[in-house]
Amino acid sequence: xxxxxxxxxxxxxxxxxxxxxxxxxxxxxxxxxxxxxxxxxxxxxxxxxxxxxxxxxxxxxxxxxxxxxxxxxxxxxxxxxxxxxxxxxxxxxxxxxxxxxxxxxxxxxxxxxxxxxxxxxxxxxxxxxxxxxxxxxxxxxxxxxxxxxxxxxxxxxxxxxxxxxxxxxxxxxxxxxxxxxxxxxxxxxxxxxxxxxxxxxxxxxxxxxxxxxxxxxxxxxxxxxxxxxxxxxxxxxxxxxxxxxxxxxxxxxxxxxxxxx
Length: 261
Ligand SMILES: Cc1cc2nc3c(=O)[nH]c(=O)nc-3n(C[C@H](O)[C@H](O)[C@H](O)COP(=O)(O)OP(=O)(O)OC[C@H]3O[C@@H](n4cnc5c(N)ncnc54)[C@H](O)[C@@H]3O)c2cc1C
Fold this sequence. Notes:
With 261 residues, the protein is of the alpha/beta class. It folds into 2 domains: 16-133, Beta Barrel (Elongation Factor Tu (Ef-tu), domain 3), CATH 2.40.30.10; 144-257, Nucleotide-binding domain of ferredoxin-NADP reductase (FNR) module (Rossmann fold). It has helices spanning 4-9, 113-120, 154-161, 206-213, 230-243; strands at residues 19-30, 33-39, 54-59, 71-72, 77-78, 86-90, 93-96, 101-107, 126-133, 144-149, 169-176, 191-197, 222-229, 251-257. Strand 4 (71-72) and strand 5 (77-78) form a beta hairpin. The longest helix is centred in the last third of the chain and has 14 residues, at 230-243. The protein is globular, with a radius of gyration of 19 Å. It starts with a helix and ends with a strand. The site of flavin-adenine dinucleotide (FAD) has 22 residues, from strand 6, strand 8, helix 2 and strand 14.
């Protein structure tokens, strides 16, 4: 008889190892975004990340100071007591493998294991990083890119603006929860950037969904990249693929986080 639990656990490839890092710098970019620079010799062995890729950051579990490395059980990382570690996904920026250094920009929101840790992390604080995960392949022949995201996607959008060929036009829409969450993005000559401030208590990503509902379709030479709160990305995916019939190859739409149930 087949053990379905075994079936599930046997299909996931083990992620790259967690390498120890320490906090080497801390910058408050905005009241909503904190940048931490991490250093660790092990980062030198990490594969070069693609644009808008990801790494997983492990920090001490809430209420503890000690960094405990979880074990891969074939399906997920778990601590010895069976609980899930404080291990979350972020976008690596300014990765310098020779120097063993990278930056993460972390949204400051209440109740987050990593967000709360980052708020209080002092220089030298210990963490660990696994990665990178896959990112986005830029179509060098595209004439126009539309980049959409909420605050969690600001680092990825900045990363993409740094690598999109300069002869393409770029339209950026970012939803933020308060006006002072705006910040300068990577320099890009042809980008038009619109910041949408969500109304208090509004559904996250609602402004981004409205933007997409304003599209009549996408020209073949346009590429769409979107990331943010999962339900809003689901709504965007539905409109783009089902209502506008945009081919899958033209649009990448990724859920980055889920609100508490
Ligand atoms: C590929 C990828 C790249 C990502 N890149 C980044 C990045 O560069 N920067 C970044 O900040 N995030 C990024 N995220 C999203 C990030 O992984 C999640 O927001 C994560 O839940 C944050 O962890 P936490 O420990 O702070 O909160 P958790 O402990 O995971 O969550 C605690 C509570 O906070 C809520 N919550 C989680 N995130 C938010 C939020 N942004 N706003 C409001 N409430 C929230 C949860 O619903 C939950 O109720 C990325 C996700 C993916 C998949």
